[in-house]
């Protein structure tokens, strides 16, 4: 079996060896086990379902959280020569969707959002075609988004509640024990095998720096972008600020574009492609950007705020240094940023008053869509309340929402404490996920001591060496294939 897998690895992907954890995950899948796999960003999670797809006889269904991520994965497979791949999403017209549904079984890799999976026609079609593997990509979203943002993640178990279903693979870069439990529960996994690699990325160096004002924060960000090499991602909290930062940095000569959920999908994909193709060096984004983006040479990730959780912070900084070269993750904050982060995290979250408005509207005969169009509640409010009130009483729903709101606030306190106290940032993040580190790298974090100049030089040197190694591997693989 191992020899065959290595042959597929070389012939389909051009690699002569597996990265840590990949082979064990693939063997578990081929043994028809349900698998929860935690691999750090850049360690080749996609290969863990793509390679089995070429060994297994039928389709692989991948549940993916973002349209941009789906498109990126589809493009990656097409570049490898795979034509039997499709993203079934809202980009398609009604006619295109119907045509694809009719021939869905002819595709090897089928990408769907959880919302698309839960549509009745799609569910019926999926139940009628042979499927060899179901994949939940970025599976932490089940726990982090399902309860309060995209409840269709929690409904996936309804579709997967079948004794004859194929194995399930849940992939993510970060997961606490609670998140792993949520993944197993909401995907109806049966005694899943856990494959967990170390979360620590020694080549990422952490810095958390307090500034006195928002204007000083921008000036420090602009200075860092100028002084330290890119490409990079600048994360901010609002669409308005993303656009404002981008315009101000463009005026300083930075090749940058903004990216956020207020943009049209086609515009967002265009910005992503510009970034991947090196037509711009920076993206200023809300947290909508970066998940699954295959750009190996991101040298820095900058935050201008406290992220909504330790898990989100780990996911976002993990987009740096996928090539193994030294990279820098910097967060600038003011004393007021904690309150702003709490406001952003809870602003569009329903409370007791929203529950009562929703309940009264439904009792009066309004459809959930009408509640939105009449501006009684936001689309997010309606999506969340439609789920919870279908499962629980009004009183139980109010209690659940209060608990979830408090959890959001506590998660911000957790990341704030990690970044502001005197302890090593790296050590605290790794321990948060129940792991330990045996040693810390030189230039570990701003608490342990950080020499930016050394990181710049090391980053340039490593990037050059990695490019040479990549060409050597390509040539070696080519010669092996010719032989």
From TrEMBL:
GO MF terms, alphabetically ordered: DNA helicase activity; hydrolase activity
Residues in Helicase C-terminal domain copies: 217-366
Entry-linked CDD domains: DEXHc_RecQ
Pfam family, one: Helicase_C
Name of the protein in question: RecQ family ATP-dependent DNA helicase
Start and end residues of each Helicase ATP-binding domain: 26-193
Entry-linked SUPFAM superfamilies: P-loop containing nucleoside triphosphate hydrolases (SSF52540)
Record's signal peptide: none
EC number(s) recorded for this UniProt protein: 3.6.4.12
SMART domains hit by this protein: DEXDc, HELICc
Native source organism of the sequence: Paenisporosarcina macmurdoensis
Lineage of producing organism: Bacteria, Bacillati, Bacillota, Bacilli, Bacillales
Enzyme class: hydrolase
Keywords: ATP-binding, Helicase, Hydrolase, Nucleotide-binding
Gene3D superfamilies for the chain: P-loop containing nucleotide triphosphate hydrolases (3.40.50.300)
